Hints:
The protein is of the alpha+beta class and 194 residues long. Helices cover 29% and strands 23% of the residues. The chain has a four-stranded antiparallel β-sheet with strand order 2-1-3-8. It has a four-stranded antiparallel β-sheet with strand order 4-7-5-6, with helices on one face.
Amino acid sequence: MPVENKNFLPVDPLNQSLLLKLARDSIRCYLATGREALVESSHFPPSLQQDAACFVSLHIKGKLRGCIGTTHAYRPLVHDVVHNAHAAAFEDPRFPRVKREEEPELHIEISILTTPQPLCFTSEKDLLEQLRPGEDGLIIQEGVHRATFLPAVWNSLPDKKDFLQQLKLKAGLGTNHWSDRIEAWRYKTITFSE
């Protein structure tokens, strides 16, 4: 069983190209056959066989077309990429399924996450003070309400308060909602794209 490494980030350009090709092949496979692609992790380099969490984001002409991912590593990275690429194209509830004619226009981006680290805070103000814009991905949770923003979201929401308010909305909470039961974790990503 792979050892969890909170700083696991496969940065090798060859591996990045391989993962991007896997993501696109996953989408093409479903468009051609109606079935999810299957991959054998042992056919890939050892670093890509490690358990890791990733998000796959799809864009067309600079606009988001789908984004799905996992926040905790529980399966080999190659499997996570294949599944999340499929899910981003065909299961993101915010968008209609990707059509065959759209596939060539898709721009694929993959973000690989470090292990989320719990944040200790006593108030919303305390949490905001700990956030590092442009660097932190953030997960918040209260009961069944859970959401995350990747570090890239800071590009469109550079203000800490706006960032947290929009994340609360994404989690199904009000922008002014606060309680002692809110939990939060931060993580970093390495992001690469076609």
